[in-house]
Amino acid sequence: MKLKQKDSQIAKLIDLETTRQKTTLQMIPSENHCTPAVREALGSILTDKYAEGYPGKRYYGGNQFIDMVENLCIERAKKLFKVEHVNVQPYSGSPANMAVYVAVCEPGDVTMGMALPMGGHLTHGWKVSATGKFFKPVQYGVDEKTHLINYDDVQKMATEHKPKLIWVGATAYPRIFDWKRLGQIADSVGAYLVADIAHIAGLIAGGAHPSPVPFVHIVTTTTHKTLRGPRGGMIMVTKKGLAKDADLAKKIDKAVFPGLQGGPHENAIAAIAVCLKEAAAPAFKTYAKQIVKNAKTLAEELKRHDFSLVSGGTENHLLLIDLRNKNITGADAQNLLESAGMSTNKNSIPYDPAGPFKPSGLRLGTPAITTRGMKEKEMKLIAGWINEVISNPASAKKVAQEVKKLCKKFPLPK
Ligand SMILES: *Cc1c(COP(=O)(O)O)cnc(C)c1O
What we know:
Layout: H1 3-6, H2 8-23, E1 25-26, H3 36-42, E2 53-54, E3 57-58, H4 64-81, E4 85-87, H5 93-104, E5 110-114, H6 130-133, E6 136-140, H7 151-161, E7 165-168, H8 179-189, E8 192-196, H9 201-205, E9 218-222, E10 233-237, H10 239-244, H11 248-260, H12 266-280, H13 282-304, E11 308-309, E12 318-322, H14 330-339, E13 342-343, E14 345-347, E15 361-365, H15 367-371, H16 376-391, H17 396-409
The chain binds pyridoxal-5'-phosphate.
């Protein structure tokens, strides 16, 4: 029986969300629109199957096809990211990161990561996260003037605190990471180095951001951001990782199951496999490069309208606007733009004087609007609309109509 007949309330809410996504611009940089093929795998009968364990070593029978699904997913990820070992079972990015701690740290070990208000992620040791409670994190930030990671400071901090594990990766850093330098820093203190590429996995897969793989031991990622798959996570072990610790792959697998999780979501793993196949196709390279071109154009246009950008611009898929010269808070700007059909999100800027509850920044990105096929021409329109709405809130309704018209021309992926 169809959902509509079985549960009209949920069916109706899904319809409403579908319309919202179709008729407005999704510019939260961690979001994207996956293809119907990915959703078909995600909504498949594979959701019914228990498969605790790993291919060939399950705790349940009946996994002959599930094993093939998971192996295919692993092989595709290994090939795409050029790594030695992949675990595709983490339920999402945060559980993937937790598994890395469980694999290589003991409770109370010193770890190092970028502070959340500087653009890092909760799971890199921020105090409200379990990772900040069970371990002893030291946190680096960005330079107050340039808003770039100061690698000399990172080296100093590593030398002083001798962390067991160093995290690199961000949710609001618009610049390229110097993986080589970070690799040298980690090696100088004997730390495991993890690249958390949750935001930029699709850019890396598409050749639009340098890969950390030659320089780090472990790579973690989500699969639903620029990689454009279902919600999920992966942990990868590199050649360098195996050279440092021959048991690293085994430790990671044991940390995921039985350390932290039970049965893997094989429907999600099948959907990840589909997204990895899409990401290996030539068209994905074009897509990844266009994400960056679009972000650059959006940044240049916003600067023309006197918007101030953290770090002065962008080299990836996202930009962070410092709204202080516009006399509006991040929250108010987010709400205002939402009423004009543009979904963005409030975010702290580095050294934010307003504090984390009323941040001065607005974070936006181009992965989802690029998936719809938008290019530089549309970015100029969008920057103009953002400027119009922020300078004259009364224009929001009119702009929402124009956004809707643009959305009609650029449908969601088929
Ligand atoms: C999104 C993100 C995560 C966590 O992913 P969830 O799937 O939301 O748990 C981890 N690290 C970074 C850098 C992220 O951007």
